[in-house]
Design goal:
This protein is about 35% helix and about 15% strand. It has about 550 residues and is an alpha/beta fold. It folds into three domains: about 180 residues, Spore Coat Polysaccharide Biosynthesis Protein SpsA, Chain A, CATH 3.90.550.10; about 180 residues, Rossmann fold (3-Layer(aba) Sandwich), CATH 3.40.50; about 150 residues, 3-Layer(aba) Sandwich (Rossmann fold), CATH 3.40.50.2000. The strands form three sheets. Strands 1, 2, 3, 4, 5, 6, 7, 8 and 9 form a nine-stranded mixed sheet that branches. A hairpin with a 6-residue loop joins strand 6 and strand 7. About 45% of the residues are buried.
Amino acid sequence: MSIRLSVLVVTSGRETLARTLRSIAAQPLEPQDEVLVVGNGAHIKTLAQQFGYRYIEDGPYGCWGQRERQAAMVLALGSHLLFMDDDDFYTEGAFAAIRAAITAHPDRPIMFKMRAPAGQGTLWKERAVVCGNVSGTQFVVPNDDRLGLWGRRHEGDYDFIRTTLAKYPADALIWNEHIIVGCREEGTPAGAAPPSQTRALRVLLVHPGASWSTADVYDGLYYGLQQHGTYVEPYRLDTRIEASKASLHWLWRKKKKTRPDLPKPEWNDIMYHAGVGALEMALRQQVDVVLVVSATLLHPDVIIMMKRAGLLVTVLFTESPYDHAHEMRIASLVDGCWTNERSVVPEFRKVNRHAGYLPHAWHPHKHYVSNRPIGELPQHDVVFVGSGFAERVSWFNAIDWTGIDLGLYGSWDPDFGLNDQVQACVRSTPIANEMAAALYRRAKIGLNLYRRSQGWGRHGPAAPMGESLSPRAYELAACGAFHLSDYRAEVREVFGDVVPTFTTPTEAAALIRLWLKDPDGRARMAQQLPACVAESSWATRAMTVLGDLARLIPQQAVA
């Protein structure tokens, strides 16, 4: 079976919460695992987000977090549930022991051991479900309809254990000798480094500046790096561009009163003003490496000055092969880079010997299989989320959508010439990735269309044909969403026959009408998709990045 752990951390905001979350981050988390931090307060939310965990605002209700735990279980998506208090922590190797026990007994509850407080040794002391001998933090249980009720008292975890076990056969509980939890100050938390250990890798992660698809790459990489214990200092180029634009124009209007010939700030001025602070932040924070996502909106002079200052600079290029000339110029300036398109790697290596391929990925907190209803989102026959490039406008115009509920989301300029039938299907401007994932899960068919032009205008030149999967391909698959796709080499390599492909609008129209009539076939194909991309989350991609950085960064700086 596929093991997916859901760790529920209910917190009142104790100072020890950071230690608790570090002990989870230090475990070998798999891409499909999730951590739910349940509490109420800006500090709790910030801390959860710093670790890349899901924050759920709830409580406090004055019953030791038991009510919050009961509610949070409904939101958990994992195959098995773990429960952690904010003053306790997981020990080294805890999750490895948990996975091994689940593999041996996938359908049975398991009671591990913990270091008890105040020098009481370890619990359990005997193989008996007795109040005071067992606790919720020791208990790992399948996430199904046999979950019990948390009592509204201090010993409410015992009530949960007892009522859960009542739904199993009498001998179902597995007693495991491995100590997975330290209580309060007993034991050593996972991830607690001895004083002699070198510090964690420090990365300045520069936002791409755009608000949508490349921002999702930034979010994913931020999450993945933190999953491996990296200290990530964010540089939000997107918000700085807006601030720079406003401030430079304000200064220009003010000075223009006495200097009428003063030129208006240009886009290059705004880019420079917004990006130059990254140099100061990298030096102030003493980072080991600067990692820029995209670099389309970061002024090249900032990178040049970073190199003059002795900083190690890398870039993850996200627009290959559509912005190849610009990316090649930037690649020649930096110490190392990655591209999302494998076919252009040889070209990059002509100007940067430390160029590599980093495929796109999916975000475990956004892209997952779920049948839970999500608000009032529509359930389309066919859905596409993306930008309305000229070739896509022509593609949608070439199909007769009569009788099909088509939903188009993203940037679709009406001046690009959508016909009336398709224009009526444009439902929204750009949407958040979480909403896109929800639409994928609800639709009968998702579409994945690959870009074929360069630039953003209506008459942009044709782009070279790529080979690699787009972010949309990974996201649809991780959501378990049946979809049809343009042909690309990696589509067949990764998905085989599970994702039907087309090369023309005529072929696509026939496939759409064929599969709309076959709900059982769609369900059969959709069920196979998550396994195809199980090793392609941002947590996995971050391992590639860190491995490459280890070869670039002086070894004394890397933990």
